[in-house]
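Ticket reopened. Same input as before:
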Amino acid sequence: MDQLSDVLTAISHPTRRAIIGQLAAGPARFTDIAKPFDTALNSVTKHLKVLERAGLIRRKKQGREVLISFQAKPLRQVAGWVHEYERFWNERLDQFEQHFMNQKERREKEKKK
Amino acid sequence: MTEPKKTIEVKVERTIPAPAVEVFDAWLNPKTPGNPWSMAEKLLLTPEVDGFFYWLIQDTAHYGRFTEVRRPSRVQHTWMSRNTSGEESTVTVTFLEKGEETLMTLVHSGLPDTDGGRGHGKGWNFLLDNFTKQLSQ
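Engineering reply: fixed in the latest deploy. New output:
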């Protein structure tokens, strides 16, 4: 599946939307995320895997703990899907921006030589 | 009297790592990847006030006239095709230099608010509305 499909799948379930809502307030540990849900821990793990595949959450090790945080960027793709022209201009400008990024990278590499 | 048609506006922003004049020139140069002109199957482009463009892509002809060309800060032209139901919409692109970068803002306004234009229609809006509600709870 492409990333847009992964994101749409991820946000199609109320539990996963609630998890995102919770994480939008700040990173949390797995046990804190699971606490409000009257569901098996195994099921929360599965929901987190779906969110992770869509790029909507990230796990980061902090000492002995793993903190899970919300990543909003993939949601832009969903917003960009609302209107054909929004999608069109987003794709155009992504490519336009990439062209300048590549140019900058090339210049920096040449400087180092 | 006919009722005024409902239109919508699309706004897209990017920060480009180059000076405004470079970004402005690249936006109007059909050789630069990413601008619409670079994708053309057929193209006539005169980027000056009252200049005209004809842009053919996937059997869809687009036409417009340039209403403002202010190098390096702003360019505006009209945009019409069967996707705008033959109505004249407006594309305004501004370039604001910020240090070594340029904030580029593209606003496409006057787009007819049709199901065709919205493409994927009410289903997506419903989903997004619900999602926003969930987040704000």
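Chain B touches chain A at residues 8, 10, 12, 14-18, 23, 26-27, 32-36, 83, 104, 106, 108, 111, 117-120, 124-125, 127-128, 130-131, 134-135, 137 (CB under 8 Å). The longest helix of chain B spans residues 121-136. Please confirm and we'll close it.
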